[in-house]
Design goal:
- By secondary structure, this protein is mainly α.
- Helix content is 62%, strand content 0%.
- The protein folds into 2 domains: 43 residues, no CATH class; 107 residues, AhpD-like.
- Helix 4 packs antiparallel against helix 5, helix 4 packs across helix 7 and helix 4 packs parallel to helix 9.
- The protein is globular.
């Protein structure tokens, strides 16, 4: 249960944000409703999220796996739910997304994907615990621009997941609307 009411004051800004959320995601997302209790926080967060959509140095699948690994490490069920839905829209396989919490024991990931998730987990630890060898492997495979973007995306997901977890936001059912059940064999 949310630790803050999800019925913020109705203002032109909150109505606009709710309209955009319904248009982009099919419903008004709970983090928006929580952040709308503070106009400046909502505006800053919205501007950040719009800016993130323009980042393109890092492969989108790697970005999605890093975000999911970070939110899994923090334990944010809202972020896992929404991240699954968003990653499926980007074409990430169900198997990869399903195995994120246990990626070390799964055989569905490439060595690069494993390094990205290891980096995301290491960055998410408190305090961060990142090995120089891992950074060098990633820099060699991704390049410096993509490594910086990876680092920034993990930091942003830490911000999102920690806000959502602290405010008690939980799954909103995005994952449930993702996968189409298999058809019976004919």
């Amino acid at each position: 249960m949310a630790r803050i009411p999800l019925d913020p004051p109705r203002t032109p800004l909150t109505r606009l944000a709710a309209w955009y959320s319904r248009r982009a995601y099919g419903k008004v997302i709970d983090p928006l409703l929580a952040l709308a209790h503070n106009r400046k926080v909502l505006v800053t967060d919205s501007r950040l999220e719009m800016s993130l959509k323009r980042w393109n140095a890092l492969d989108p699948v790697l970005k999605d796996l890093a975000v999911m690994a970070s939110s899994a490490a923090i334990g944010c069920s809202w972020c896992m739910d929404f991240g699954y839905w968003e990653s499926r829209r980007h074409g990430v396989s169900h198997e990869k997304l399903h195995d994120v919490p246990v990626w070390r024991d799964s055989d569905v990931y490439t060595p690069l994907e494993r390094d990205v998730m290891e980096y995301a987990e290491a960055m998410t630890a408190t305090p961060p615990d990142i090995e120089d060898e891992l950074v060098e492997r990633l820099r060699g495979r991704l390049g410096e621009a993509a490594l910086v973007e990876l680092t920034a995306m993990v930091a942003v997901e830490n911000l999102r997941s920690r806000i959502n977890s602290a405010l008690g936001l939980t799954s909103q059912g995005f994952k449930d609307s993702c996968d189409i059940p298999g058809r019976p064999a004919v």
